[in-house]
Design brief:
alpha/beta; 4-stranded parallel sheet; globular; binds phosphoric acid mono(formamide)ester; binds norvaline
């Protein structure tokens, strides 16, 4: 069963197969109306179920368009509208929905719930963001870098600055699997997940952890940030104060490599983690990055349903 709960189980070859498929399929439909189905309609007759425990704009729309462009359809629900919200267990929900749809995507507060859904489902389960990781987003980020730079991600240098969160954790995992250098700059006390960091380093990942934004910028081909307060977290003045020196502004961007790309998974809090000048500036690739959620998720769906990556 090919779940996409995190990046590591797919392995470097699986991730590369997904990226290559996304590049290829995106190019093949350039200029087409968005609702037109891909020539081969590889998921005709398939249904994707999506469950959201937290808000979403990009993940919701991009997965819905992804399955449609592959020839399939979707059912989208918020957890609160389901019996899940009244105490039906994740395990029973998994058993039932496995009889009705071909794959499930879950956005949840708790990574443990995602693991449980996968344990009891007999169909592939995809991580649409948990408190711990956001693997689909990081795949879109990598696709965007490769598209904009014209070179493979392997061997590049990325900087992540801000709160050590689900995005940071998935970037750490990605860097160790796809062999790019990652420099993480976060305030003291807001480090990324220690277990994910240790596993990535044990895998041979080249990851630097710094407590200034400036140190993280050295040699960076890509600069990434994210909100300082993730969904489900309490807004605190102390946290905002600690994160303020990590704002991505023109002065900070000037410390990265010339022409370094700026990425943000969005939604952005302009004036907090990033200034308007960077978001709207020439180095920003955030709109391509958002669009690429669609293209990479098509490839993730194909991988989960065994349509690509045979023999991996
Ligand atoms: N980047 C991202 O996951 O956006 P949404 O929360 O809008 O889905
Ligand atoms: N770290 C953010 C990402 C949003 C897409 C959050 O979890 O809210």
């Amino acid at each position: 069963m090919r779940h996409f709960l995190d990046l590591a189980p797919a392995g470097p070859a699986g991730l590369r197969a997904i990226l290559d498929e996304a590049h290829r399929r995106k190019a093949a439909r350039a200029g087409w109306p968005k609702g037109r189905v891909d020539e081969d309609a590889p998921l005709a007759g398939h249904v994707l179920g999506m469950i959201f425990e937290k808000p979403s704009t990009r993940t919701r729309f991009s997965f819905d368009m992804a399955i449609r462009q592959l020839g399939g359809t979707s059912i989208v629900s918020s957890a609160g509208e389901m019996q899940l919200g009244r105490g039906e267990t994740i395990a029973d929900t998994a058993r039932v929905l496995s009889r009705m749809v071909d794959a499930l995507m879950l956005r949840t507060n708790s990574h443990a719930k995602l693991d449980q859904l996968a344990e009891f489902a007999s169909i592939p389960v995809i991580n649409g963001l948990t408190d711990l990781t956001h693997p689909c987003q990081v795949m879109a980020d990598i696709l965007t870098f490769e598209e904009r730079s014209g070179r493979p991600v392997e061997g590049s240098t990325w900087a992540y600055v801000g709160d050590g969160n689900n995005m940071t954790n998935s970037l750490i995992e990605a860097s160790s699997l796809l062999k790019f250098d990652l420099r993480v700059g976060v305030p003291h006390g807001l480090d990324p997940d220690a277990g994910i960091m240790a596993t990535a380093c044990a895998r041979g990942g080249c990851i630097g952890l710094y407590h200034t934004a400036e140190e993280a910028m050295v040699g960076a081909d890509v600069v990434v940030t994210d909100t300082w307060v993730s969904m489900g977290q309490k807004d605190s003045e102390a946290k905002i104060a600690a994160c303020t020196p990590f704002q991505v502004n023109d002065a900070l961007m000037a410390r990265a490599n010339p022409g370094a790309l700026f990425l943000h998974c969005l939604p952005a809090h302009r004036g907090d983690e990033v200034t308007d000048s960077v978001m709207d500036g020439p180095q920003s690739a955030v709109w391509d990055e958002a669009e690429n959620r669609l293209h990479v998720q098509k490839a993730i769906l194909l991988w989960c349903l065994d349509k690509i990556g045979a023999g991996i």
